[in-house]
């Protein structure tokens, strides 16, 4: 099946926080909306030194830089943000402030508690260098798309594109062995999901006989580029539109002098094997460990950092359990899908 953007597949498991900030200049009414598992939710927020800081979590209230992954410039105001958060009244202060460094600067710059994020990065100096690194089967798949009539280009963000994305997302209830989080969304919901960063992104499209069969949203983030979403019609999988879209994304990066293309995470916690990881590996993405910092701001935060209670289940459960559970889930969804087809 066609892979989804890793940025949309991230495991945002914590619920929206039930407290609000004060003592600092908040954004509008002190809340912003963020997308969690494909759904928009309102969370507390405030402005600190030009950055929107959002807070999520009930038991462990965690503050982070809004859209940190998609920023044009690396986040360098950590100390100032931490100082401002620490000055908040105790009852309004988040427990932990987390932030990360931007690819490709992997050497730790701060002396805060940290863990290593697993990031999927393709590094190249030219399209030819990336192409030569691909396995033969992947190169064949890119060529197969062209031979079978797939036309790859770019599109403006308009109603026709939104309708095409809506059709792709509503093709299948299940993808990657689980219920697809964007299935069933309306035209307006799809438009809202994709209207971000339109001033510095590229919608790369794959058409077959005039029909949109695949789309990749590429966001330019200063000296790097990141894939926000990659999706295609399962019915046209034999034409390999996803392979062609990814090759075009690398080509565009090379033309701009961008040598690092980020595609979400490489490993998802202790889950070592997945179809998405294999897809990334076959397209010359490698695992780059980037430091992510966890700065405690309260006594409870210190305990949570010391015991690593901020982690989600993918980082807590052993690999064998995750593989077993995801396998059983895929079987359950497969039976449910088969049953629905016979009704």
Structure report:
The chain folds into two domains: 6-115 and 293-339, no CATH class; 121-286, Gcn5-related N-acetyltransferase (GNAT) (Aminopeptidase). It has eleven helices and 14 strands. The chain is α+β, with helices and mostly antiparallel strands and 343 residues long. The longest helix is centred in the C-terminal third of the chain and has 24 residues, at 319-342. Helix 4 crosses helix 7 and helix 5 (159-169) crosses helix 6 (187-194). Helix 2 links the parallel strand 4 and strand 5 (96-100). It has a twelve-stranded mixed sheet, with helices on both faces.
Produce the secondary structure layout:
Blueprint: H1 6-9, E1 31-36, E2 39-48, E3 51-56, E4 62-65, H2 78-86, E5 96-100, E6 114-123, H3 127-133, H4 136-147, E7 151-155, H5 159-169, E8 174-175, E9 178-179, H6 187-194, E10 201-208, E11 211-221, E12 224-232, H7 241-255, E13 260-265, H8 275-282, E14 286-296, H9 299-307, H10 313-316, H11 319-342
Parallel strand pairs: 4-5, 12-13
Antiparallel strand pairs: 1-2, 2-3, 3-4, 5-14, 6-13, 6-14, 7-10, 8-9, 10-11, 11-12
Helix pairs in contact: 4-7, 5-6
Q: What's this entry about, in short?
A:
It contains 11 helices and 14 strands.
Total number of domains: 2
Radius of gyration using CA atoms only: 21 Å
Number of helix segments?
11
User: What fraction of residues sit in β-strands?
Assistant: 25-35%
The CATH topology of the largest domain is what? Aminopeptidase
Secondary-structure element series: HEEEEHEEHHEHEEHEEEHEHEHHH
State the CATH superfamily name of the largest domain.
Gcn5-related N-acetyltransferase (GNAT)
Q: Distance between termini?
A: 24 Å
Shape: globular
The CATH architecture term of the largest domain is 3-Layer(aba) Sandwich
For the sheet with most strands, the description reads: 12 strands, mixed
Strand order of the largest sheet: 1-2-3-4-5-14-6-13-12-11-10-7
Total strand count, please? 14
Mean pLDDT: 86
Query: What is the name of the CATH class of the largest domain?
Result: Alpha Beta
Percent of residues in helices comes to 25-40%
- What class would the helix/strand composition place it in? alpha+beta
Can you tell me the residue ranges where pLDDT is under 50 for at least 5 consecutive residues? Answer: 1-27
């Amino acid at each position: 099946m066609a892979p989804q953007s890793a940025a949309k597949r991230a495991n945002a498991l914590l619920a929206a926080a039930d407290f609000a900030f004060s003592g600092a200049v908040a954004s509008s009414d002190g809340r912003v909306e963020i997308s969690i598992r494909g759904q928009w939710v309102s969370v507390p927020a405030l402005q600190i030194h030009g950055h929107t800081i959002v807070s999520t979590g009930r038991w462990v209230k965690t503050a982070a830089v809004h859209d940190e992954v998609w920023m044009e410039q690396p986040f360098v105001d950590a100390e100032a943000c931490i100082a401002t958060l620490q000055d908040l009244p105790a009852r309004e202060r988040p427990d932990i402030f987390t932030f990360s460094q931007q690819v490709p600067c992997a050497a730790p710059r701060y002396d805060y508690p940290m863990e290593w994020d697993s990031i999927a990065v393709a590094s190249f100096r030219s399209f030819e260098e990336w192409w030569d690194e691909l396995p033969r089967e992947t190169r064949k798949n890119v060529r197969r798309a062209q031979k079978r009539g797939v036309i790859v280009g770019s599109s403006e963000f308009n109603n026709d594109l939104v309708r095409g994305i809506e059709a792709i997302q509503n093709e299948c209830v299940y993808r990657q062995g689980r219920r697809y989080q964007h299935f069933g969304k309306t035209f307006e919901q799809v438009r809202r999901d994709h209207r971000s960063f339109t001033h510095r992104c590229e919608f790369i499209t794959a058409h077959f006989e005039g029909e949109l069969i695949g789309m990749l949203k590429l966001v330019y983030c200063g000296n790097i580029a990141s894939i926000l979403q990659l999706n295609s019609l399962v019915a046209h999988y034999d034409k390999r539109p996803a392979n062609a879209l990814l090759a075009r994304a690398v080509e565009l990066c090379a033309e701009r002098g961008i040598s690092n293309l980020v595609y979400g995470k490489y490993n998802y916690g202790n889950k070592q094997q997945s179809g998405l990881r294999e897809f990334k590996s076959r397209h010359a993405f490698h695992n780059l460990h980037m430091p992510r910092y966890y700065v405690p701001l309260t006594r409870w935060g210190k305990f949570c950092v010391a015991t690593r209670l901020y982690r989600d289940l993918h980082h807590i459960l052993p690999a064998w359990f995750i593989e077993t559970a995801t396998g059983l889930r895929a079987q359950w969804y497969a039976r449910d899908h088969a049953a629905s087809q016979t009704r």
